Amino acid sequence: MTTPTRLILRNGRLLDPVAGQLVTGKEVLIEGERIVAVRAQGEAAEAGAQVIDLGGRTLMPGLIDCHVHVLASNANLGLNALQPNAITMYRALPILDAMLKRGFTTVRDAGGADWALARSIAIGLIPGPRIFASGKALSQTGGHGDMRARGELLLSEPCSCCFRAGAIARVVDGVDNVRLAVREELQQGASQIKIMASGGVSSPTDPIANTQYSEAEIRAIVDEAEAANTYVMAHAYTARAIRRAIECGVRTIEHGNLVDADTARLMAEKGAFAVPTQVTYEMLAEHGARAGLPPESVAKIEDVRQAGRNALKLFAEAGVPMGYGSDLLGEMHEYQSYELKIRAEVLGNLAAIRSATSVAAQILQREGELGCIAPGALADLLVVNGDPLSDINCLVGQGEQLAMIVQGGSIKKNLLG
Question: Mean pLDDT throughout 357-362?
Answer without folding.
Answer: 98
